[in-house]
Each structure stands twice: as C-alpha cells, then as structure tokens.
Amino acid sequence: MLEKRSLAIKPANTTYEEAAGLVDGPTTSLFFLRAKAHIQSGDKVLVIGASGSIGISAVQLAKYFGAEVIGVCSTANLKFVKSQGADKVIDYTKDDFTKNGETYDIIFDTVGKNSFSCCKSSLKKNGRYLLTIGNMLTNYVLMLWTSVIGSKKFIYGMSIEKTEALIFLKELIEVRKIKPIIDKDYPLEQIAEAHRYVEKGHKKGNVVITV
Fold it and tell me: What gap in Å lies between CA 11 and CA 17, rounded to an integer?
C-alpha cells in the first residue's frame, strides 16, 4: 500500500537525479547521527569515508547540527570534503587518525575498514562509534555488549521508515543548508560500469542511474 511506503515530495530546487540520491546516503547519515548518536552542537565528529554518499552527507549534516567535523578520505578527495564543510580533513594514505592523540564524541565509520576495538582509544568518554555495514549478528552482539560494559558505545542499526527523514532533508535542501552531490550519472544500459566505478571506493557523493 502506498500509504505505508516512504514517500516525500521532491525538493523544489533539485533535479530528479539529485532527489533520487537522497533516498539512501543522506537518510542513513541522518538516522545514525540524529536517532542513534543523538548528535549535539559542539560535538567533535570524525567521518571515515567522508567523500562517499553516506560520508559526505554526514559531513554536511553534522555541520548543520553544530558539530566540529573532521573527514577521513583519500588524497584525491581532500579538497572536495573540505568544500562541503569539514573543518579538517585527514588523508588516510598518509596519516592514521587512531595514532594522532585526538579524541572524538562520534566516530562515524561509513566504509567498515576499521573496527570498534582499533577506534576505541580515539573516542572520548561516552563516545559513540557508528558503523553502517558489516556482519549483522556480530554487530548486534557488540552493540548489546557495549550497552552494558563501559561508557564508549558501538552503534549499529538500519533505518527502515524514511518518510520523516526525506521531508526533513527536503526542507534543509530548499533553504540551502545542505545539498545533494552527484558524482556521475549513468544510463541504464551502463549499469555494470556504474557498479564497477562505485566498487573502486573513490566516488564523490552519489552515482545515479537514469532510466
């Protein structure tokens, strides 16, 4: 039934391709930052994989919520992430954020190449480590364990109902607080090529398919 689906009117100042890109990355970022991590103004937030669909929207949203934002990405994407609001960027090919002595209220891992154990020392007391991918059973066990042991929390989950998030994002976009990012637009017949490009792990924002 349509009334049970996640639906929202397209932002007036976006293309249909840009609007399509809101359904995944930005709604996921909003869910983790607002609903799961309870982000507050003044929080220090590290975004791992800051140039991707989830990562770049996390950078924009964290800035909107008043956080200090540090993005972790490759050399090629440093300027891009900085241009989207990051206060600082870390080139993971040259620097290891887990060894620089800095600590964060929130570490948002959008790529899953790190772990809670290796990032734990980089979390402040009551810090939250957010992970969007990985083994579901293992992640839920770790989430339950950290909910009762220690002050630093591992947070994993999945946003299912997205209507409210889409409406919220639409309002932010229309007043230009955030903006959708499209890296490449592929026609349907090039969908395999689009997947290959995404799997390289260096895209900037979203990749969309035009039907």
Answer: 11
